[in-house]
Amino acid sequence: RTEARRRAEPPPAGFTRPRTRTDPHPGGPRSPAMIAPLATIALLATAFTSGARAEAVHGAFVHGVASGDPTHDSVVIWTRVTPTGRDPGETDPDPNVSFDVRWRVATTPPTSAAVDPDARPVAEGSRVPMAPGSTVFGWSDSSKVARAGIATARAERDWTVKVDVAGLSHGVRYWYAFDVVDTSGGSKTRASDFPPMTRERRSETGTFELPPPKGVAYPRDHGPLRAAVFSCANWGWGYFHAYDAAARGWGGVDEVDSVAEDSRRLHAWFHLGDYYYEYGQTHYPNADESVPERWRSLDPSSETVTLDDYRRRHRLYRSDPGLQRLHASAPVVAMWDDHEIANNPWMNGAEDHQAWEGDFKTRARAAIRAYHEWLPTREPGGSNGDSSEDDSDS
Question: What 3-state class would DSSP assign to 363?
Fold first, then answer.
């Protein structure tokens, strides 16, 4: 293809187009050192133009996992598959890119072993996908998997995955996780069609225990029921140490990446609102009041008004290691207050909504949509993601 035609065409899904640079040899021959990288790029481009599903190799789980809204026999589980290569000012992945995501809920923890000790998970915004085969992960004994299915991460839900898992038992400790699979061939459409152990991209592992039905007491030998209550979490004021301490059993675990042992773990936690704050960098807190690195990293740096703004603020908060660890440790029962939309709202406006920021109801709908996308909640009307479930004996 000619250079002009190449630049006129959109890049393959998931790839970012390099910034334009002046060719030091316009119209002239290129050295072997220059030809090799170009050939590699051409091969990669060919490999990844076979369809959006092939973009599964460009997905990464960088926002952790979560469970929420537990009943005596069901719970909502959540994760997000982040398309890599998403750099500010660069070309985003094809908006139609989607990911097939297997979810599994089991009565024992999964096993995981590093294949390459030097492999590192991909970071948000990185252009380089995590190398496949970094770990072998899963449940080799399929009889321990209580429920499983295939969900779809799509752009219209900001690539979040949320599944309302039913048919579970109360009083049993479960573990759950997600991994990327490929159902595009049509021959594999169930979670059990894929190998129990995988080297593909996968999430961290979460755990939960469901409460007994209404009116039924916990067994006498159950032990203490442990819960935590939170509200009003503002990124700029500092780190979320309280989240981290609750996940570790209130300081009872010294290891950095550990969750509390069984006798000290949470059974549930409650967030009473202001899960995040909509403010920008100008106030509450401003630069002088805040923890500098937290203030500098606020995204977006301005107040959240649009759907993209609210989604970006959720992404930021869910990048916090303490909050990720807490979400993985126990189910959350969450409700919103005012800052999930704007400070001190009423029916048709808010104290923190100005006329130049557009229609308030449009803003409120955007905030509520992002909230349900990013939290493991049951949504009005039963819209809880896009998932198919295997039979109960999976």
Answer: helix
Spell 247-276 as b/e; 16+ CB within 10 A means b: bbbeeebeeeeebbeeeebbbbbebeebbb
Q: Determine the residue type at 85.
A: G
User: Is residue 364 a contact partner of residue 345, using CB atoms and an 8 Å limit?
Assistant: yes
Strand intervals (E) in 166-311? 173-181, 197-198, 206-209, 227-230, 268-271
Tokens 């400070």 found at: 343
- The DSSP secondary-structure symbol of 300 reads S
pTM of this prediction exceeds 0.90: no
CA-closest candidate to residue 219, choices 169, 164, 146:
169
Listed in sequence order, the residues at least 6 apart from 215 whose beta carbon sits closer than 8 Å to its beta carbon are none
Strand, helix or coil for residue 154: strand
| Nearest residue to 223 via CA among 187, 263, 189, 190 | 263
The DSSP output letter for 378 is: P
> Tens of pLDDT along the chain (394 residues)?
444 444 444 433 333 333 333 343 444 444 444 433 433 333 333 333 333 333 334 568 889 999 999 999 999 999 999 886 544 444 555 667 789 999 999 999 998 777 665 655 444 333 333 444 567 889 999 999 999 999 999 999 999 999 999 999 999 999 999 999 988 877 788 999 999 998 878 899 999 999 999 999 998 888 888 999 999 999 999 999 999 999 988 754 445 455 666 778 899 999 999 999 999 999 999 999 999 999 999 999 999 999 999 999 999 999 999 999 999 999 999 999 999 999 999 989 999 999 999 999 999 999 999 999 999 999 987 666 566 676 544 3
**Residues 341, 220: contact at Cβ < 8 Å?**
no
Give the residue from 378, 375, 248 showing the smallest Cα distance to 317: 375
Query: Six-digit token pair at 218?
Result: 């916990």
Peptide bond preceding 300 in cis form (omega within 30 of 0): yes
CA distance 303 to 370: 15
Tell me, what DSSP letter sits at residue 126?
Answer: -
Cβ atoms 170, 73 nearer than 8 A: yes
Q: Which of 265, 357, 365, 333 is nearest to 68 (CA)?
A: 333
